Amino acid sequence: MSAKPSTDPRGAAVEVLLAVLGRGRSLDRALSEHGPGGDDPRDVALCRAIAYGVLRHHRRLGAIRDHFLRSRLKSRDQDMALLLEIGFFQLTEMDMPAHAAVSETVAVARRRGKPWAAKLINAVLRRFQRDSAACLQAVDADPGRSASVPDWLLARLRRDWPDDWPALLAAQNTRAPMTLRVNQRRISREAYRGRLAAEGIGAHPLDGFEDALVLDHAVAVSALPGFAEGDCSVQDAVAQWAAPLLGAADGDRVLDACAAPGGKAAHVLERAAASLLAVDSDGERLQRVTETLDRLGLSAEVRVADASDPGQWPAAERFDRILIDAPCSGTGVIRRHPDIKWLRREADIAHLAVRQRALLDTLWPRVAPGGRLVYCTCSVLRAENEAVVEAFVADQDDVTVVPSVLPVGRPVGHGHQILTGEAGVDGFYYACLDKR
After folding, report:
1. Annotation-wise, does 262 bind a ligand?
2. Does 261 appear as a known binding residue?
3. Is 391 annotated as a binding residue?
4. What is the per-residue pLDDT for 405?
5. What letters, b where the CB count within 10 A reaches 16 and e where it falls short, cover 71-88?
6. Angle at CA 208, nearest 5°, toward 204 and 209?
7. Phi, psi for 31 (deg, rounded to 5)
8. Above pLDDT 90, what percent of the chain?
9. Backbone angles phi, psi at 112, to 5 degrees
10. Which entry of 43, 277, 403, 431 is 20 to 30 Å from 415 by CA?
């Protein structure tokens, strides 16, 4: 049985981590359900920082814990095992006085009714302070522990990116910047940058991304001038290449086949007066597409459907442009969603590849002659990207692969791969296919 909702940030972080690691909840959902009570934004910020940080470094922190414990804690004491990880995270990664980190962490064990654990945690954390150098040297000798990544994912990254995997792993454990997409139908990028500066919010453009502004420091969305009126959206810069690659023109019939939460569909409509159909199989998530379009003053047809099911498409329905932002492992956005490392399983990759190929097979016949299909994922795994597109193209006789001209990343056969952290952007894959 879990403890009652905690009113302190560390106690709340324990509940969040239990929900993710013990019950398979997403981090976003766990934070919404188990965040700290009260109205102090500092408590919310600390809980989030601890939850994100522990999940980024979970394997390493667990190895530190195991280095000091004679035997593993029982399954019913998983909360105390995670509380030790919280203590180690504060001591190794957070800028706070060590005595406060130790005393406040120990206090959580007492509040959870485990005085025996409070004594243990106090002793282990203080021993770590004395012996941290030797402990970390032993723990970090293993690259999987050092980078805090599951062995299966480490093996795939090393195989797919033999020269780049160390930098990729390091980038996965960094905090991602907050990037905006300026709606230049309403305001120019430089004019909006001036509005941000007037509010004391620093931002800079990113070469090759004409609508993007990267904030010097993240802020609450409510602090962004004109956000509610549609002047900007929050979207990583590399995701802002979907609309330019799609190249929709005024009057084009466009399909966004996996549209939720709607950022790419909105960007298409910001750039062209197209007729857009936004499809997603999740009706609840599709509601976010409608909300996004409404905020931006844009309109589109919205349909709940499984885009990979041929039976859901009328035989005569054709599109000038189709975007498949395919369901994937999310391994390119781990720095934003560190829970992916612990919720995703290796067996998922093959299942996802089957789903990705089904989307291509079903939707390619819906591309009008002379039209274009853009396939993209937020994955850095070849099995979901180049391998899927390569096999698909080999089975078609009417495909022209369009060479990529993106300002970051590298060409990979039939597409273009961006690895997490390159030019500060997320990991992403694009393939651009024209129908002859």
Report:
1. yes
2. yes
3. no
4. 85
5. eebeeebebbbbbbbbbb
6. 60
7. -65, -40
8. 94
9. -85, 10
10. 277
Collect all residues with Cβ–Cβ distance below 8 Å to 235 and sequence separation of at least 6: 179, 180, 181, 263, 267
Distances from the Cα of 310 to the Cαs of 55, 314, 374, in angstroms?
A: 39, 8, 19
> Residue 289: which of 271, 311, 304 has the closest Cα?
304
Between CA 321 and CA 14 the distance in angstroms is 46
Omega cis (within 30) before 261: yes
> Any known ligand binding at 37?
no
- Amino acid, res. 45: A
Please answer whether residues 209 and 240 qualify as being in contact, where contact means their C-beta atoms are separated by less than 8 angstroms. Answer: yes
3-state secondary structure (DSSP) of residue 429? strand
> Which residues are catalytically annotated?
378
Please state, in angstroms and as integers, the Cα–Cα distance from residue 394 to each residue in 366, 373, 388, following that order.
Answer: 18, 16, 10
CB of 183 closer than 8 Å to CB of 232: yes
pLDDT tens readout for residues 15-31: 999 999 999 999 999 99
Q: Say if CB 324 and CB 375 are below 8 A apart.
A: yes
> How many residues appear in the chain?
436
pLDDT in tens, 106-130: 999 999 999 999 999 999 999 999 9
Distance CA 306, CA 258 (A): 9
Structure letter (DSSP) for residue 313? S
pLDDT at 73 > cutoff 80: yes
Helix (H, G, I), strand (E, B) or coil at 206: strand
Check the annotation: does 311 bind a ligand: no
Question: Which amino acid, 289?
Answer: V
| CB contact set of 351 (below 8 Å; sequence gap of 6+) | none
Average pLDDT of every residue of the chain: 96
What are 303's two structure tokens?
A: 């349909």
Q: Got the DSSP string for 274-300?
A: -EEEEEES-HHHHHHHHHHHHHHT---
pTM over 0.85: yes
Contacts 24+ apart (CB under 8 A), 72-77: 77/114, 77/117
Q: Is 263 annotated as a binding residue?
A: yes
Q: Is the pLDDT of residue 186 over 60?
A: yes
